[in-house]
Design brief:
Layout (H helix, E strand, L loop, with lengths): L5 H26 L2 H24 L5 H6 L20 H4 L2
Length: about 90
Amino acid sequence: MSPITGVTATRDLDSERDELIRRNRSMMQQLGLLPLVETLKEQAVQQQGQANKRQRQTERPSAEESERRVTRRSLRTQGKEPELPALLQPMFGG
């Protein structure tokens, strides 16, 4: 008995998968579900397109508005010591 190589195993899995897909499609055809599945797929694609369009239509702040936005920066990076709240000053010798 020879060992199964990775390529052979992959081919076997691919052929098993293809067979399973074929059987499932055949069963769906017998049950009359294929047209329904295609309709659902089309609706999902349309809804996804509409969702993407809504995302593009949302307003983004202008560059000027973005610059005006307050950004927190560390005082230590500016070479300053931070101010301690009044309650902490006795503890840290402030």
